[in-house]
Design a protein that fits this description.
single chain; about 200 residues; elongated; 10 helices; Arc Repressor Mutant, subunit A
């Protein structure tokens, strides 16, 4: 592994130093998990020490500016987090979102997760034929989907439906979900059934 790292870095983008911090911000913004310095260094084509310095500088800059988010180094990986003093604002926003109906895209994605779990975002995207990153974040925020470890082969995060999902659709086990075969290849009826089950009490 160590011997192959220089070759990998040589093939990377080799981001100019002037663009290092914005590049790190862009990578961290789209990541759904903490990124370690080696991964980030490989992506930008800069030495690991230089990347760590850039990350530390960004974290200090956010603190000085009093941003609503912060950059933390947790367990060897860097990730954006909401600043603690604004937790009440975020909580109120998330709870308000619980009263909204799920979109068609969210329902279709939820159906794929329910029947293919544990499943990666890439696999769900391949099945649906569209990028599902944003939709998956919505489902996780709503508490309907949760992380289920990593795929041993690819290292990708896996997702499954939560106990809250079972509560919302009125079943006690995934075994009680309707058979999928009758709905293939058209899942419209299945999506409609999920939508009816997930109607909020306030609707």
């Amino acid at each position: 592994m160590t011997e192959q790292q220089p070759n990998h870095l040589e093939a990377a983008l080799d981001i100019p130093m002037a663009d290092l911090r914005p590049s790190l911000e862009a990578l961290l913004m789209v990541a759904d998990e903490a990124l370690d310095p080696v991964t980030l260094a490989s992506a930008v084509g800069q030495p690991v020490d230089t990347v760590i310095e850039g990350l530390s500088a960004l974290a200090a800059e956010y603190d000085e500016q009093g941003r609503g988010f912060e950059l933390r180094n947790v367990a060897g990986g860097w990730r954006y987090y909401t600043r603690e003093q604004y937790a009440a604002v975020v909580e109120g926003f998330v709870l308000d979102g619980q009263s909204a109906r799920l979109t068609q895209a969210a329902l279709e994605t939820l159906a794929v997760v329910a029947y293919k779990q544990p499943v990666s975002r890439a696999r769900v995207s391949a099945i649906r034929g569209v990028n599902v990153d944003g939709v998956m974040r919505t489902l996780v925020t709503r508490g309907l989907v949760e992380e289920a470890g990593q795929d041993h082969a690819s290292g990708a995060l896996l997702y499954r439906t939560s106990n809250y999902f079972l509560e919302r659709i009125g079943v006690t086990s995934l075994d009680e979900l309707p058979e999928l075969a009758p709905y293939l290849p058209d899942m419209d009826d299945l999506v409609d059934e999920l939508a009816d089950s997930l109607v909020e009490e306030s609707a």
